[in-house]
């Protein structure tokens, strides 16, 4: 290969392939339009190139190398395949009946006296003040995206139970309490009362399964989920 015919890599794919070809073929540099077999490549060397490419995360097969014998052609095909594999189908919001899982059957069999209180609370410390409008949008998007947060446990006419996924409610299950002007001793009382109240507002039949309370204490900010 002469420098006059050398074409340098233009893309990350081409750069990676050029480096691999140079190493395997024992050449100082490989142009993107150079033919693999014209440079001395063969089936054994092609396997080495494929192996090294796979080790670096490139999805390359011997068939691709034999069909596209220059770096430019090979990189173009690989980029196209990567773009196609990255396309994700939008499923939209899911609603309707859901098969009751084994843990769901177990939960019903326990006949909990207060099934709505069978939940978990998480306390999160927030570093900076959050805007209520933005926080509402985040909670709304989270409920739309995570279908399990919209599950409902319903009793059928046959006196059996089934899960169903409800559509998102208009009401966002978020409460914002600004206690920044309140003495710290009173803050603790209001905090505990608010948390206990939220516990009573969870409903596995009618929803919601999730409620969030954002407390602005002035000296710190907390979120209870």
From TrEMBL:
Keyword Protein biosynthesis attributed: no
Which coenzyme or cofactor does it need?
pantetheine 4'-phosphate
Signal sequence extent? none
**Molecular functions per Gene Ontology:** catalytic activity; phosphopantetheine binding
A Gene Ontology biological process term: lipid biosynthetic process
Tell me the superkingdom of the source: Bacteria
User: Key word Phosphoprotein present in the record?
Assistant: yes
Name any one Pfam family assigned in the record: PP-binding
Which keywords does this Swiss-Prot/TrEMBL entry list?
Phosphopantetheine, Phosphoprotein
Span of domain Carrier: 8-82
* Protein name per its UniProtKB record: Carrier domain-containing protein
- The organism is Dictyobacter vulcani
Instruction: Give the lineage.
Output: Bacteria, Bacillati, Chloroflexota, Ktedonobacteria, Ktedonobacterales
């Amino acid at each position: 290969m002469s420098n006059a015919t050398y074409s340098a890599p233009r893309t990350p794919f081409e750069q990676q392939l050029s480096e691999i070809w140079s190493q395997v073929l024992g050449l100082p540099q490989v142009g993107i339009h150079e033919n693999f077999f014209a440079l001395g490549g063969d089936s054994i060397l092609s396997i080495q190139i494929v192996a090294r490419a796979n080790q670096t995360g490139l999805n390359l097969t011997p068939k691709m190398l034999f069909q596209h014998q220059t770096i430019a052609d090979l990189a173009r095909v690989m980029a196209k395949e990567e773009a196609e594999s990255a396309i994700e189908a939008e499923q939209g919001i899911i609603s309707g009946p859901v098969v009751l899982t084994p843990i769901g059957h177990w939960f019903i069999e326990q006949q909990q006296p207060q099934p709505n209180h069978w939940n978990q609370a998480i306390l999160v410390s927030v570093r900076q003040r959050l805007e209520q409008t933005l926080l509402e949008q985040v909670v709304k998007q989270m409920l739309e995206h995570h279908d399990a947060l919209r599950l409902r446990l319903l009793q059928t006419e046959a006196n059996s139970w089934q899960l169903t996924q409800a559509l998102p409610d208009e009401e966002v299950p978020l409460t914002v309490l600004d206690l920044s002007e309140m003495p710290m001793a009173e803050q603790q009382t209001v905090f505990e009362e608010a948390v206990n109240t939220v516990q009573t507002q969870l409903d596995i039949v009618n929803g919601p399964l999730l409620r969030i309370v954002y407390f602005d204490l002035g000296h710190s900010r907390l979120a209870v989920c």
